[in-house]
Each structure stands twice: as C-alpha cells, then as structure tokens.
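Reopening this one. Same input as before:
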Amino acid sequence: MTDRDWRPRYIQLAEELRQKIESGALRPDTPMPSEADLADSSGLSRTSVRNAIRQLREWGLVRAEQGRGTFIRAARKRVVRKNTDRYQWEKNRVHETEKERRSAGGTEFDTGLAVGNLRFYAEYRVIEAPEELAELFGISKGAKLLQRDYHTTAQAEEAPLGMSRSYIPHDIVAQNPALLDQANEPWPGGTQHQLFTVGIELDSITDHLTARPPLPHEAELLGIESGVSVIAIRKVSKDTAGRVVEIADAVYAGDRAEMVYEIMLERWNP
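Same output, byte for byte:
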C-alpha cells in the first residue's frame, strides 16, 4: 500500500489480497490468513481487516463457513453472458432441422458450453393465473397457465448457471399435446420453436432487468454467497398480433452474470 493511494486502506488491502488469490499465491479452498496475521502484516486495525475481508466476500473471492472461518473460493464459476442477439438467433433456428436445433440451445449460446457439458432440469405444472399475470396476459384471473421451471448446470459445477420460470396460457400449448409433457425437454429449438408448432411467430421480446437480494431458495439453489445480489429478468414475449404469449422470470447470480445490450442508433442525415 502506498501513501499516495487515495482509496481507503481496507480497499487497498482487499486489492492486494485479490491479486494473491488470482495469482494462486492464496490457493482455492484454503483458509484465509487470520485477522491477527493480516493486521500485523498490513499495519491496519482489526476493523479495517474485517472490512477488507467483507469486500472480498462481495467480490465473490472468499466464502465464510460458520464455525470454521473464511476460505478462498474455488475458481470463478462459468459466467452467463446475455445479449439481445440470442432472441433473433433462436427465431432464425425455428426453421432449421431437428438435428441442427438439438446441437445447441439458449444456454449454450449464453455460455459457450457444448450440449454434452450441461445438465438440464425441467418441471411442468398447471396453475391458476394470479391477478398480476392474468392482467399481463389479458386473460381472466384463475385461467389456466402452464408453469415451467428450468435450470441448467455445467457438468464441472454444482450450482446451476441460473434459474427461470416460464408461463404460457394453457389453451395455447394445449393445441399441441407434446408441449404439455416435460419429458420432451430440453425441446430442440426452445420456446420459440414450441410456439411455432402451434402457429405462433414472435414479434417482440421485452426484458425488464432489476438487481435485488436473493430470496432464500434462490441463494440455496444458485450457491450465492452472502452479500451477492441477483440479476432478475422478466421477459415478455408478444406475437405478431401484439398478444402476450409467454412471460418468463429468470434469475442469475450477480457475480457471474453479464448483460450486454447493444442499441443501434439512427444516423443523422449528412
């Protein structure tokens, strides 16, 4: 740490420790040096040392284990990188052969992983539309919806890459009984191809992004450390008639998700 560094001293210490973690000088799954040792070596107070360790937790570099102490986290988990190109890519693939559609899906597009490197989970159930969803779909409260829960996990990891819950009006998917059977997941071509089988073409998709603390079940499933927020995305899909045909809520751990949205602007006339 230098006298000219304007940052708080605990941040300077956290940066030094980050460099040691990333270089391998502090190895994954080993205990952090004790607060006393860090205070002695850095010349900082115990309070500043605790603040530095808290910062490392917020960066996702260490984990606290009750009754055992603080440990260096294993290598950073696979990052999910989402951008709007995915939706057009999925639409273009609707007309591809089943073999081509089975070769990759949305998760593969977002992560660069191959199909064989993923474990897929899906669970379907029929629910009655609550007021909020009924209003968004333009249907009666209590009308039947097909609720679909998904998460996908990289083979080398324990925690899923993200989790999502999709809703589609039951009368839409009931036109093709195959769409009601979770055993047909992962469906080659995903939701856009499923809708295509009942004559629906998507015209627009709107993503609503928020950052918030994780709910308890989200933190448990996604392996989220204390202090890490989630990125929640509500996706609203409309067909060419302007009808909402799917609403999906996806949740990603904020320390391993990146949202990239490129907006092309109209040029001024010369």
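So the earlier flakiness isn't reproducible anymore. For the record, The chain has a mean pLDDT of 90.
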